[in-house]
Amino acid sequence: MLFIYNFIYILSEMAPYLLFGFLVAGILSQIIPTSWVQRHLAGKGYSPIIKSAMIGVPLPLCSCGVIPVMASLRKQGANVPAMLSFILSTPQTGVDSILATYALLGLPMAIYRPFIALVTALLGGSVYYWTSKKEIEQETDELKKNNGINNNDISINKRNIFHLISESIHYGFITLPHEISRTLIFGILIASIITTFIPPGIITNFMNIGILQIFIAIIVGIPIYVCATASIPVALSLIYLGATPGSALAFLIAGPATNIATISVVKQFLGKKAVIIYILTMIFSALFFGITFDYLVNIYPFFDISHVAHIQHSHGVFYSPIKVSSLLLFVLILVLGLLNIDPWMYMKKETKEVPHTDRYMKIRINGMTCNHCAQRITTLIKNISNVVDINVSLEDKTAIIYGNPSFEEIKQVLNTEGYSAEIIENKILCNCNCQ
Questions:
Q1: How far is Cα 259 from Cα 279, in angstroms, rounded to an integer?
Q2: pLDDT classification of 346: cutoffs 50, 70, 90
Q3: How far are the Cα atoms of 134, 326, 420 from residue 48, in angstroms, in the given order?
Q4: Where are the domains of the chain?
Q5: Which of 187, 191, 227, 242 could be a cystine partner for 62, CB 3.0 to 4.6 Å?
């Protein structure tokens, strides 16, 4: 059945990039302190928007790979316009796609694409800030009021490298997928339906209707999944079929930057208003820069890329070894997320030893609502003085802390992250053989 084939194909196309995105998110969650995010990607003004746009342009993340990274940064305190800027700039281009663009579409397009990504990101983030300035400032003031300047982030140098790797993998491949798997699957299903029932050749039917071909390229490009690098041969094929360079560019902008899956998750993490601005900004940029590029081609020979139309590119099928292995791992991660299964917890239960300490403290944590919260709380408390070990229960909203730490210090650390804590038990363990 064509629908099943397309569903598997989209999964296989997304899998390598999403896995890479999960890995990046996991690493960032451990090496980028919350205080850094709050200082640079939160706050008032346009500085967070500019920084997010500039950070996003060189990153080799597609519109799916950027999802977990955006979700991670948002949960660490980055504001909505900064994250909107980030998801607009990052998927459009990257170091890998810039080089591939130069190889297949020439220098003009290789220069123009990252420039467009930067401008689009600044525009989208700024529009959101203009229309939500009061809310952003209130969020910033609330963040400062509740958290202040967070000085409790853990130095990488103080942490065991194996623990750092383990926590990065757990956060990237377990915690985040648990939170976005349902939304992601829904988006992939919608994208598969569109891919199955809307023939690709529909664009070529309008090749002789001027500006309409650019608009059609945008409309088709927005819902489907195609990464910045994979979109290049598609754009090349459009030029080969007679499309103007501007319509090929419009597809290069709209295709990689958006898809149904990304739109669904953006709504989940940034809200409905952000989704509307996200889509409208992308449509405007693709239309404006597509028309502009066609104008430049007609005026300046430097921008003419019609000579590349003879280049052909054959697409790899989804059963290549790399895609198969990525697909299997990706499906496993999605299934674990859908079933809310955490292999780390099962391994801990099997290998858990009684901590070598004579004290433990059980506390209730208010504000712990997701796996990300539990992961963050575990990391924070583990690095407090005199903490031997900790078991966090998301279901019970509790944590059992082994050792003899100061509750006031624990409370202060949790308060800086927006949580509150109260003691349930504080006991001395009996290690003797008495009954």
A1: 10
A2: low
A3: 16, 34, 28
A4: 2-336, 353-428
A5: 227
Pick the most confident of 25-34, 71-80, 122-131, 307-316: 122-131
Q: How far apart are CA 428 and CA 360, in angstroms?
A: 7
pLDDT in tens, 245-283: 888 899 889 888 787 777 887 888 888 999 999 999 999
Beta bridge partner(s), residue 393: 398
pLDDT in tens, 8-63: 877 887 778 778 878 887 787 677 665 566 567 776 788 889 999 998 888 766 66
| Residue 2: per-residue pLDDT | 81
Which amino acid belongs to residue 376? Answer: R
CB-based burial label for 46 (10 Å; 0-12, 13-18, 19+): middle
Which top CATH class is 353-428? alpha beta
Give the HSE-up count for residue 181: Cα atoms under 13 Å, Cβ half-sphere: 21
Angle at 92 between CA 80 and CA 96, to 5 degrees: 125
**Structural contact between residues 174 and 180, judged by C-beta atoms closer than 8 angstroms:** no
pTM: 0.63
**What is the mean pLDDT of the segment spanning 139-148?**
62
Measure the CA–CA gap between 294 and 300, rounded to whole angstroms.
Answer: 10
